[in-house]
Amino acid sequence: MLPVAVMLALLGAGCGVLGTGAGDSTPFILYQVSLVDADLSVLRVTGRVFGVTGKKVRLLPPPAGGGREIEPIGITALDAEGNRLRVAKKSKGWEISNRRRDFSFSYRVTLIVEDQYSPEIRGRLSCLGPHHCRLMGRDLFLVPAHRFCGGVVVDYSIFEQRDVHSSRDSSGNRVVFPGLSDLPLSLVVEGDYRYLKATVGGGDLTLAVHGDWNFRDEELMEVIRRVVSREIALFGSSPGENFLFVCDYNPVKGSSGFNYYGIHFAGSILLLFDPLMDRSELFDTPMTIVAHEFFHNWNGEALKPASDDFLWFTEGATVYYSYLVLRDVNLITPQQHRRVERAIAERYRNNPYRSRLAVGRAANHDLGDKDLVNMLYDGGFLVCRALDDRLRTLTGGETGLIDVLKKLYREREHGSAIDEKILLEGIRELTGHDLSAYLIRLIGNPSPPELISSPVSA
What angle do CA 335, 271, 344 make, to 5 degrees? Predict the structure, then answer.
């Protein structure tokens, strides 16, 4: 546990005093997550709110982000003296009549929201086992619709005498998040994970591994370290200070799903591998998951797609560079890289959506449709490779697509939204060339000839 003085310092000088229930200072909130029933995967979430001056407080579910919206059970609220407060269900969220007083609220959540064989993996990122858990914030927290001061403290009490780990500041079972907006994308692990640490390019890496594998934990950490080092070098700086990688079993099996999943959110990367994967796959194309998800720190998080129509670039450029990174750090050979390119081009040519769906209109909402997912990723890969080749041809090899990404990353605030217009402006400013007509031809029409006859690089 953090000392009280340290906790209050983290909350900030502008926060209200604990228990005042009034004043002009910004209110603050503390959460506790505790175990109710391990067999049924039920947790209790309690929030304590201090310094709210309004008569009512609205609790809202966080954005689902591809999963299911939280379904809290039995919401109750009490004032500081233990008197029950009125809780009313609204069209959006729940309203607590606190009458300008400090109060607490509590509810239960069940973590199992998808059948374990569902292809919709993003609907069940949290899990609770007999001796370990990984908890995703959007599966747990209702968030008050008020402005709260930074430094949101969350205490996790799932397993006795077990520390929690996160990409955020933590000590013992306590994690301090920068603000309420950071809670939905928070990932916390606790229990019988094995932990390895490394420092790369100014960023501290933590790898949490659960279960038995055909490779050593240190080997996976070395793969991560090499990939992270290369990608930081590509952009010239680390996208953050702390990163958490979590290696766990992939719960989705069968032809309707994928054997390997990687999911990135706010400094955390969840790696869900086939539990029977061979050690040799650490030095093969499955490790593109590591390269892909870490690359999203820049292309996806620092530079966000302005809409789903730009996902072809967010995912396509990330796929394109993830394989190049594996080649650059000798996790795959140049021959393997060429085979990957040929396989992607062939899969695109054989995709049943190719003749009627433009790459710019593909999206990845339905992970149950592998052809649709492949259309987005494969088509985006081929478009980005074509853009990179065109840029290098026009500039005599001096400028590529990565240089455009670096320019946008350095010149825009973290979290800025980008689209085709901004991408094309960046290309014009960097090279003096207008590729708008070329790009529209690639992403605006089904089966553009440049993608159908896409050559393999040397």
Answer: 35
Query: Cβ contacts of residue 317 below 8 Å, gap of 6+?
Result: 299, 380, 384, 401, 405
Q: How many Å separate Cα 177 from the centre of its chain?
A: 15
| Torsion angle in degrees (nearest 10) through CA of 154, 155, 156, 157 | -160
In angstroms, rounded to a whole number, what is the distance separating the alpha carbons of residues 341 and 324? 10
Give 78: exposed, middle or buried? Use CB within 10 Å, 0-12, 13-18, 19+: middle
Question: What does the pLDDT profile of the chain (458 residues) look like in tens digits?
Answer: 444 333 333 344 334 333 344 444 678 899 999 999 988 899 999 999 998 888 999 999 987 666 677 889 999 999 999 999 999 999 889 999 999 999 999 999 998 644 444 545 556 688 888 889 999 998 999 999 877 878 899 999 998 878 999 999 888 999 999 988 889 889 999 999 999 999 998 889 999 999 999 999 999 999 999 999 999 999 999 988 999 999 998 876 555 556 777 888 888 999 999 888 999 999 888 899 999 999 999 999 999 999 989 999 999 999 999 999 999 999 999 999 999 999 999 999 999 999 999 999 887 555 567 888 899 999 999 999 999 999 999 999 999 999 999 999 999 999 999 999 999 999 999 999 999 999 999 999 999 998 987 665 55
Tell me if residue 194 falls in helix, strand or coil: strand
Segment (H or E) for 44: strand 42-50
